[in-house]
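Quick note —
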Amino acid sequence: MSQVIVADQHPIVRLGIKQVLFNELNIRDVIEASNMDEVIWHIRRSRCDLLILDCTLPDRSTLDILHEVRSYQAKLPILVHGPDSCDHFALRMIKAGATGFIAKSCTLIEFTTAVRKLLDGRKYVSEAITEQLIRELQKDRSDPSWEQLSEREYETLRLLVSGKRITEIAQMLSLSTKTVSTYRMRVLDKLGLQTNADMITYAINHNLNV
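Predicted structure written out below.
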């Protein structure tokens, strides 16, 4: 029998996912987690066949949690779900170790298909994300692009644009303020920008869902 961890900060969302797992996929062994620390606690102590992970959990970076989960269970299937129109963020999740990505507005059929594929040892991404991956491979890499940023640099960009201060980002990512400031300077340099306001404009112009 498969064991699934459902990680989402909203109890009603966890309940809905559990009901789908029970009724449509006959999965009875479901563990709930409401934050990243609970996810890691269960990953370290439970036999798990699938992690369904909300990419907007508030307490830690999703990119960080993917790396940490991978350090404990390198081959664990991870299905990340997030907001609509988030192709750029989905690409980052996949590169960081997610084996599947779906939008929260996905249909019941798409959700159950994704779960079945991951439990079967395969991957799942939506058609829109697949198209974005193809476009990424076809892009001219000589142009300044957010895709040239490291994961830490991209996460710093995302959090700065969302209004977080350097001290808040340092706490969220378990880094020093000096290190975060260094990442900020690298982002500005790589993207040819000068200020945080430039970052916001850049994010809007490039349709980055932060």
